[in-house]
Design a protein that fits this description.
The chain is 0% helix and 52% strand. By secondary structure, the protein is mainly beta. The strands form four sheets. A nine-stranded mixed β-sheet has the order 12-19-17-14-15-16-13-11-18, with no helix packed on it. The mean pLDDT is 93.
Length: 294
């Protein structure tokens, strides 16, 4: 049973030494689960090991696989923290020992993930106060319930597309540029060479002319604020397919109206190909005039 007793030795089968060296019996430790259950090959992930009968001792260790042993930090009798060593990408079994010799045998698995890197994001900027859908390109992404993007210090859930692409909605933040990183375990974030810029929202104030033929082809000058000279500058007439915009200044762009039926629709502008203005400035389509005779 649990407790401490003396260990003595005899060399003649009768006379035992009486040095009262103590040996402690403890309840066998066991692991129920670990959090997180995955981490990168470079190591350094702090893993919380949950279970029972963990002891605060100098011989408390975690073992990852068969050979990688690291010191454990006792938190409570049902929780120990261990920092993962560097390992190759694979699944390894995690066990714990209270005495440095006898390990648990619960075979709880930890997944060693390949190194992940963010190479680029699209779009590279978006307006403040808008949850811009951002596609993140890179390598080493893994499908996981703990897949996240981090914009600066703000983390949001990510949607897995494949091992080189995830999609995230940019969280609301102040104006400026931030690094974008990805985590497959919700704890360890990737290296990155990509940034995302928060900019002031753009707005449409007016269009000239305010009307044009249903045949389309009218050059429409759009005035407003916050326009940027980018390859993703578009105008959208109602719900029609977007048309390329021509940058004139931060307050003016021009677009060629597409064909449409008689009626009135709104004209909106995007500078990043994703986020359109929502100012509802109206443009009217009319039947093309024709002269019969004079």
């Amino acid at each position: 049973h649990v407790g401490t007793i003396a260990v003595e030795v005899t060399t003649n089968g009768g006379d035992y030494i009486e040095d009262m060296v103590q040996y402690r019996y403890y309840a066998s430790p066991a692991i129920s689960h670990i959090v997180p259950s995955s981490g990168p090959t470079e190591g350094g992930t702090v893993v919380s090991v949950y279970g029972r009968n963990f002891i605060d001792s100098d011989s408390l260790y975690c073992r990852f696989g068969n050979d990688s042993t690291v010191a454990g930090r006792w938190v409570s009798s049902d929780r120990v923290e261990c920092q993962t060593p560097s390992m190759v990408a694979s699944n390894v079994v995690v066990e714990v020992t209270n005495n440095g010799f006898d390990y648990t045998a619960n075979r709880v698995e930890f997944t060693v993930l390949p190194e992940s890197v963010v190479a680029s994001v699209d779009p590279t900027f978006g307006p403040i106060g808008t949850s811009t859908s951002v596609t993140v390109h890179g390598s080493g992404f893994v499908f996981s319930r703990s897949l996240y993007c981090r914009f600066g210090l703000l983390s949001v859930a990510a949607m897995f597309v494949n091992d080189t692409m995830v999609v995230c909605s940019a969280p609301d933040a102040a104006q400026g540029s931030v690094d974008v990183r990805v985590s497959s375990n919700g704890v360890d974030y990737s290296k990155t060479s990509a940034s995302y810029e928060y900019v002031d929202a753009h707005h449409v104030h007016d269009v000239l002319p305010r009307s044009g033929s249903t045949n389309g082809g009218t050059i429409v000058y759009v005035s407003g604020t916050g326009f940027k000279n980018t390859s993703n500058l578009y105008c959208r007439f109602g719900t029609l397919s977007a048309v390329h915009g021509v940058y004139i200044s931060s307050t003016n762009v021009s677009c060629v109206s597409p064909m449409y039926q008689i009626g009135t629709i709104s004209v909106e502008v995007t500078t990043n190909g994703v986020d359109y203005s929502e100012d509802m400035v109206q443009y009217r389509y009319y039947a093309s005039p024709a002269i019969s005779h004079i």
